[in-house]
Fold each of these.
Amino acid sequence: MNGTMVWPATAAICEVGLRDGLQNEKKLLSVEEKLELLDSIVASGVKIIEIGSFVHPKAVPQMADTGELAKRMKRAEGVEYRVLVPNLKGLERAYDAGLTKAKLTVSVSESHCRANFNQTPLQMMEGFGPCVEFAAKNGMVISGALSSAWGCAWEGKIPTAQIEKITRAFLDLGITELSLSDATGMASPRHIYEMGSHLKKAFPEVSWVLHLHNTRGMALACAVAALQVGITTFDGAFAGFGGCNFIPGAAGNVSTEDLIHMLHEMDIDTGVDLAKAMETGRLAQRILGRAGGSYVLQAGRNCDLVAQKAQAQQNK
Amino acid sequence: MNGTMVWPATAAICEVGLRDGLQNEKKLLSVEEKLELLDSIVASGVKIIEIGSFVHPKAVPQMADTGELAKRMKRAEGVEYRVLVPNLKGLERAYDAGLTKAKLTVSVSESHCRANFNQTPLQMMEGFGPCVEFAAKNGMVISGALSSAWGCAWEGKIPTAQIEKITRAFLDLGITELSLSDATGMASPRHIYEMGSHLKKAFPEVSWVLHLHNTRGMALACAVAALQVGITTFDGAFAGFGGCNFIPGAAGNVSTEDLIHMLHEMDIDTGVDLAKAMETGRLAQRILGRAGGSYVLQAGRNCDLVAQKAQAQQNK
């Protein structure tokens, strides 16, 4: 019995390096450094950028200047500048900074929510209603994120019924763009394929985004499985920065460059100039003073190897 | 349009760390260290082990003691101990060391063969005839490897017709177990799926093995694509050691532990005890004095994270 794989013509990349890639970095970047990274991301052709979050500055000091960043950045035509917000207060700060797109996030894991917030996921989502009202009044667009969707340190695999419950709660709020987040890197390609197939059928009105971490090396394999169910929008972080709160030293978000390289090698257009995306990754590595987890930044693209060999032959 | 992914019940792992993982390491291991690794591999349940190669000792000093290793190793019931040989001389040395399985390798790339050996692949394969005769006379089994099958530093993508030509030449010699090797890590999942589908149909008599490197992070994604065409035998190297001759510092072979972890997470049985395979990987890292490229050795298995969290809750 053989499978039948499909290859969409295009896929979309959301660069989340400025938020998820940086949020746990000890070295605090200046707004100027973030602006330089942002310029570089825009120059590469990425059209969706998560520039930061409006969470408590003491909880995540790296994100404290998201408002200033938003106010000072140039806004390129056709680019979506998104922030993550946990609640109405965060959303109001996003609005004050002139932003029009915000992502509300909730962990689908009952145990995770209880342990961290002493609430159930649905209780936490009660606060999302006023956010949606505020957004509607002020011309903002809200998307949602289901964190721990692919596994949880407390619960392991999350039952499908639980994912459905949280999805329905988002839909009841009128939020139809939903990110399935795997910050602990527990998703396997089969899980992505099976859960993804089910969710695509059960909720045809949802625009799904996949947020993968490469904690156990499976992120690109999961992306390939997602393509098979028609999920074609992927978060990535420059140079593969980011990490997992629970696993010190673990690999971070899937590297934007590796993701684009693989998609392009499969003739799937992302609209991004990979060479320029690699410049963003190198810039991030210079600013942070260390290598991230990007293979392509380390080894070069397939075409680079062939070009180098041709050059070496010519020089003989 | 959606894909249909399939998940075989089982997959086979060939541990090639002792050969491909070590061959370019500067630190020369003692035979005792290799025996310790070999014992550990066998203890984990791996049934196919490439223990070394019989190439010129000056070309690959790390492999110079393969004969001694073969003579001194304990032979476990049901385990295949394989070596790589380039020619009849190597095969004779393998026979003298008491081995019964050898792999003959040729690059499918005309340019690569010309540049390194001033011969075409088919000219190189002329030397395989006497090897097959020798093997038949002496009760040895020969398998083949098509190196650069997924891309070549000189030529980039290798045309299907070229892969077919070399495959037919192997079949003409009576060699039906063939490894498709990607030492430069240029394979993409789509390429694996499309070429793999074609080859499986065109040569139903062949037992295919996939030899992946994680140079550009795509190895596990390629393995998933291979499963879809019914290729279920994979080389891996402990801790992801190994590399690419042309790319200093690049990632090595796909890590055996990462491969097994992913397969098990997808309910595909390998017959290997992952915890024990991880011990092999850690042993290799201790012997070589550095980390390899294994994610699972770095971050732990999915189940480890859940167990750690449960333990932490209990200790509260």
Amino acid sequence: MKKIAVKASKPYEVLIEQGLLSECGKLIAKTTGAGFAAIITDDIVDRLYSEKVISSLEAQGIKTVKYVFKNGESSKSSDNLNKIYNFLAENGITRTDLLIALGGGVTGDITGYAAATYLRGVRFVQIPTTLLAQIDSSVGGKTAINLPCGKNLVGAFKQPELVICDPLTLRTLSDETISDGMAEAIKYGMIRSRELFDIIASRNLKNYFEIIDDVIYRCVSIKRDIVENDEFDTGERMLLNFGHTIGHAIESFFNYETYTHGKAVASGMHIMTEQAVKHGDCSSEALDALDSVLRSYDLPLTTEASVTELVPLCSKDKKCESTSINAIVCSDIGKASIRKMPFSDFKAYMES
Amino acid sequence: MKKIAVKASKPYEVLIEQGLLSECGKLIAKTTGAGFAAIITDDIVDRLYSEKVISSLEAQGIKTVKYVFKNGESSKSSDNLNKIYNFLAENGITRTDLLIALGGGVTGDITGYAAATYLRGVRFVQIPTTLLAQIDSSVGGKTAINLPCGKNLVGAFKQPELVICDPLTLRTLSDETISDGMAEAIKYGMIRSRELFDIIASRNLKNYFEIIDDVIYRCVSIKRDIVENDEFDTGERMLLNFGHTIGHAIESFFNYETYTHGKAVASGMHIMTEQAVKHGDCSSEALDALDSVLRSYDLPLTTEASVTELVPLCSKDKKCESTSINAIVCSDIGKASIRKMPFSDFKAYMES
């Protein structure tokens, strides 16, 4: 079993091993000592894994209740959140009990947010079951829900007690969902590790599973390093937004329908790096390598939207301060920097 | 001007002076440097004080927008919270901007909670305008909203940038609202300071204003000391619950209609202390002094509900862990202790 210790304001471990789902009861009992847990999951994950998780927990004497919501981004809403709160109240969850997020990013984000706010904070465990959740959203303590007027507008920093990653759960995902996660894995390589980038580039969407444990381990390690330095997202953590400023603009331009988050980030990374090459900030070899790995995971380099159409949408990105923007630029594979610039300069940089 | 420095995870000051409302712009500009503020207030306070606050802010070049909701506890809801979030989004509030809570406890609690969670945290300033808010709810960083199934079930710890108390705002309050706040002031005396208790006891509901600056200063100082030692409410802070376990049971028994929070806490303090006398834990002189000061502020000693009816409701209090309860007992005026006991022992203590 691979272990990554995260020294955030509350320290915790990320555990990675194929088959870990059947061991989760033991691991959770040992780490938390909780006797009562509310499992929060969506209907698809519920059918696949709830039984395994519940029997593992109950074998350790942990009593469980389960709340199931409809799979999908539309469930990351204040309406679903209120239903979760009422479920917790009805089942008498107290501060000594535990929430367990079993599922992908939506489940982790809304469960973590409920855990951050119910009774001003109860403990929670992440059991991420998608690649994106395993390498990214389950680590670092960002939790959120969407508002009708924007994604992730309401949230909290809340560290889990434990993160349990079982890569076997990826076997039930569609190719598209794997692509989606792989875009973020490629991002970690681009901003911090040529070695990780090369490992990812050595496989493709068909045979990625051969390297997946190592990829998850390396991505989480990078995120851990960055988050430990900047838990509350005021500096270095912005590096994680590489490809995301344009990516969010793409998602928004197409009303969050045509492009998944990963596909939008993939195009965002290509577009940013193409501009970096134009400005002499990055070599064309690095861009070629990026494009090649994106293609091998079935990820797009561009979209039907022009850069001129996308740039204005970047200023709505909540990560931009009103008059300036933090652009993340890779000067080579494995090397990224934050460039704070007036929005007008960013526009000029992107449209040249 | 009286100043109290609070050294919480984020340090801030509580400022107390009659007439401070007209100075708030200068104080807020100096402390926060913000250029844009969203004022959150209720319709009653809006009519009385918004104009003064806004003109003071705008004189310092701070642009303002204002959100007004209906006065009353029913506005401390997720419905009103969502309206606040949408207002903040529509007005483009970012992390460099400011929320200002102008009003009583409901306003402070919901504004603080919105500030804790919108964009995972924006800064906020408290301008409490009721006695209860000035001496209690605006200090210490507890923020919350109510759920249909219980009060304050959802919340966060969020410290303000600054608390501005202008005792002149108390002049527009009804006697009942002053009584309500004075119950908490008496509580501070009971748990920590015979001197404060005696100052309060030297006046009554008709002439309390003569001592109010000093009372606010002393109450906030006590709360500051306790909160600095136990910001996240896992130990000493429970002392602040003196009278509250029974008090909450009273509020709940009468469906939050017959008794205000302060009246319920007043009865809670009397009932707890009466039992302490019976068990030899407290002198009857202390109880007599408590009863006398409660009467002079028009606060009740008991209610129509019997202790036998109230005790079962204490176990629903979210402050009780499932099998035990932290009872707060005063052994004398100014001296309180936390007694953790099985719920059955608490029942026996109360019903003997």
